[in-house]
Design brief:
InterPro entries: DNA-bd_dom_put_sf, MerR-type_HTH_dom, MerR_fam. This is MerR family transcriptional regulator. Keywords: DNA-binding, Repressor, Transcription, Transcription regulation. There is one protein chain. 55% of the residues lie in helices and 8% in strands. The protein has 110 residues and is mainly alpha-helical. Strands 1-3-2 form a three-stranded antiparallel beta sheet. Strand 2 and strand 3 (58-61) form a beta hairpin. It is globular, with a radius of gyration of 16 Å.
């Protein structure tokens, strides 16, 4: 089956998105954000990674990759890092509320 022939629900595979975990190198390649900058954003608490054991590779889930993309977009538009981070948190809360409603839960029950 060609990708264009796949049903739209494949695009909204929440189980797949929950399982998606990508190394920092891949995240950097995909987003265009240097690894050093990703580490800095993590130090600032803007994003969170999981690590493979002591000194292991940083891994990022879908939500953190989304945050990286949003922060980058806002900074490219002239926002400071702090302003972009605040705006992204607002967007993520709003998105969380919408998806919670779609899933039949009240916001922030997750």
């Amino acid at each position: 089956m060609e990708p264009k022939d796949q049903p739209e629900h494949v695009l909204l595979d929440f189980d797949l998105l929950r399982k998606l975990v990508v190394g920092i190198g891949e995240v950097s390649d995909i987003t265009g954000v240097p690894q050093r900058q990703i580490r800095y954003w993590e130090e600032k608490g803007i994003i969170v990674s999981s690590k493979d054991g002591e000194g292991g590779t940083r891994k990022y889930d879908y939500l953190n990759i989304k945050k990286i993309l949003l922060v980058k977009e806002l900074m490219d538009d002239g926002f400071t890092l702090d302003a972009a981070a605040r705006k992204v948190e607002e967007r993520m809360r709003s998105m969380s509320d919408v998806f919670a409603k779609l899933a039949g839960r009240t916001p922030r029950e997750t």
